[in-house]
Structure of Alanine racemase:
Amino acid sequence: MSATSSLSALPTPSLLLDERKMLANIARLRDRPALAGVALRPHLKTAKSVEVARRVLAGGNGPATVSTLREAEVFFAAGIRDILYAVGIAPQKLPRVAALRAAGCDLTVLLDSIEQADAVVAASAAAGAPIPALIEIDCDGHRGGLPADDPQIIEIGRRLHTGALLHGVLTHAGESYGVLGAAAHAAFAERERHAAVSAATRLREHGLPCPIVSVGSTPTAFAATDLDGVTEVRAGVYMFFDLVMAGIEACRVEDIALSVLTTVIGHQRDRGWILVDAGWMALSRDRGTAAQTVDQGYGVVSDIDGNVLPDLIVTAANQEHGVIALRAGSTAGLPAMPVGTRLRILPNHACATAGQHGAYEVIPAEPGAPLVHWPRFGGW
Amino acid sequence: MSATSSLSALPTPSLLLDERKMLANIARLRDRPALAGVALRPHLKTAKSVEVARRVLAGGNGPATVSTLREAEVFFAAGIRDILYAVGIAPQKLPRVAALRAAGCDLTVLLDSIEQADAVVAASAAAGAPIPALIEIDCDGHRGGLPADDPQIIEIGRRLHTGALLHGVLTHAGESYGVLGAAAHAAFAERERHAAVSAATRLREHGLPCPIVSVGSTPTAFAATDLDGVTEVRAGVYMFFDLVMAGIEACRVEDIALSVLTTVIGHQRDRGWILVDAGWMALSRDRGTAAQTVDQGYGVVSDIDGNVLPDLIVTAANQEHGVIALRAGSTAGLPAMPVGTRLRILPNHACATAGQHGAYEVIPAEPGAPLVHWPRFGGW
C-alpha cells in the first residue's frame, strides 16, 4: 500500500509520526559542531516512547532526561540507565527514587532548597545509599531555581556533599521559547551557560565538587555557540518540533514530524467552516502560538500527504470537533472537502498534542515501508 | 485512615473525585421537576468510567450519550445498550457502528448532510440491517447542524426513512456555555427546544417519523422550564462540574467534585510563587475561565481537605510544574507552604482535566470509607 492508502485505513483521529523528519531533527542537533565537547542528554518527556528513545539517545540507551518518575521507571525497564529527573523533587517521591536506584538505575534528582536537600540526605540515610542531586539555578526568572549568586547554593551543596551526592548544577532557559530568532536564542544560551558555570565555580571555590554543569532547552541547544564550562546539554521537543518552535524560528514548518490525522465530518458553508473529528481531545488545548506573530489557532492544516494547505488552520476546537477555516484576512479560497476527506493537523505544541494519544502511527523513514505502531505512555 | 491521611499517601499528581458531591450533582439534575416528562440521556464523555456511568445512568445502564466509538465499545461491553454517538458520523466509521449494532448495541448516529445520510443508507444495506440516525439541528451557530427550516432536513429524512432508520432530531446549545445566569441559560434552552421541535414538526408534516427530539447541554438542562415536544435531555459535565460552569452560575464552586492533588516542590519567594508538581499535563491546557468575569488561571487552589484558599490560583503551568500565586490585585497574604505540602486544584474544565488522567482516586460518599481507585479510559 502507498503511504496515502495506508493513512486512509487508519482510524481517526490518530497521531502520525514522520520518522524521516524525526531522524533529521535528531541528527541536526547531534551533529552541531558547538556541541562536540559536551554530552547530549535528550529529554524524553515529549516522546514517552521506548521506540523514540532508542532513536534519540546516544547508542540507543545513553543519558536521558525525564519529567516524571513513571518515565524513569518505564525507560529504566527498557534498559536506559543514566536518567535525570529534572523536576524539583517532592520529599514523598524519594522512596520511589531510592527503589529505582537500588534496582540499578543511575537516577539523579533536582532541587533548589535546603528543605529538599535535607530530605535527600534523610532518604539517602534511610536507603543506606547516597542519592545524587543537582542544584537548580535560575537563569531567566522562568520557573524554579536559585540565582547563581545565592548563598543557599553553598549551604545546599555542603549538605548534599556530606549526606548524599552533590552531582552539580542545572539550568533551563524556559524564557527562550518566547523570543524570536537564533541571535535571541543564542543570548539565552549564554545566560544558561553563565548562570550554570558561575554557580559551579562558586561551589568549587568552596571546596565542593561540581562534576555536572547541565544547561539546555530546544532553542538554546540549537543556537549556543560557546559552551565553555558546560558538561551536558538537554533538549526535548526538537525531535518532533512544532508550530511554537517554528514561530520562533527554531525550526521550519516542514521539519515538524508530528501531525494528527483527521476526517472531515461536516460543513457550515455560510460560515466558511469545515468540521473535522479532531477536537481538543486529539489536538490538546494548547494555544502556544496565540502570543506569537502568527496565531495558528489549534494547528495548521495539511493534506493527507503532508502538504500544508494555504491559510487553513483549526480556528476552534470542542472536545471531539475541530473547526477548520481560513485564517483571518486570507484571500485564499476555501477548498472543496467532501465529508470523509482526510487531513493532517500540525500541532502547536508537540508535548501537549502527543500527550493526548496512546500511540504513534509511524510513517517509516524507509520509502514504501508499511506503517508501524509505537505505543506511548502517560501518567506519573 | 482519615481522608486527609489517605490523601497524603497518594502519589501526586492524582485526580480526586468526591463521590458525595458527584452524587448530589447527579441527583440535582435527575430530580428537576421540569424534566419529569422526558428521558435523561447523560453524556459520558467527561466521565469515561464505567463506575461513574453506573451512578449517573438511569437504572445503572440506562440511555447514554458518547463522543467516541471507543466510549460506545467500552460502555457496551459493560452492559450499557442504548447509546447515542453524538458527533457527526464519518463514513469510514460506519463499519465499526455496524459491528457494534450486530453485537446487540442499540447505537444511534448523528449527521447533518445528504452525503452522510447516503453513507448510512449504504452501510445499512451492506450490513443487512438499518442503522438509526438523528439529524443534527443548529440552534445557535455553535458548531454543526442544519437550521431548523433548511429544506435538506426533509431530503435527509426521506433518505434515512427509506434506506436506514430516521430516529429524529438533535440539537445542542453550545453557546449557552458563554452566557451568565439561569435566565440566560433558560433562553438558550428555549432556543434548543424551539429548533428541535420545529424541525421535528416539519419532518412529521412531510409524513416522516420523528420519535426522538433530543436537546441539551449542562447549562440548559438545569435552566429549562418548558420542554414541550422534547423527548430527551442530554448533559455531561454536570456530574463533576468545574470552574467554567461556576463562572456562568450553572453551579457553585463548592459543587465541583473533581480536583487534582498536588505537592509543593519549591518557592520563588521574591515573586510570590509556590511551585507544585501539577503542570498542564495534570491540569490540561484548558483556560476556559480566561474569557469569564473572573479568570481562574489554570485552577483554584484548595487545601488537602478541599477548603478553597482565598485568592490562590495556578497562574502559570509548564508540563510538570504549576505556579501558584495570589490573583492579581489580591490583598491576601501568601500562606506559608513548606515543600511537601499537599494541595488540591479545582479544574477549569472537568472534561479536559479528567482527560489527562488514567484513573479517579475516589473519596467515597460513605464517611470514613477508604479511598477507591476507578480506572478511566481514553482514545478513540
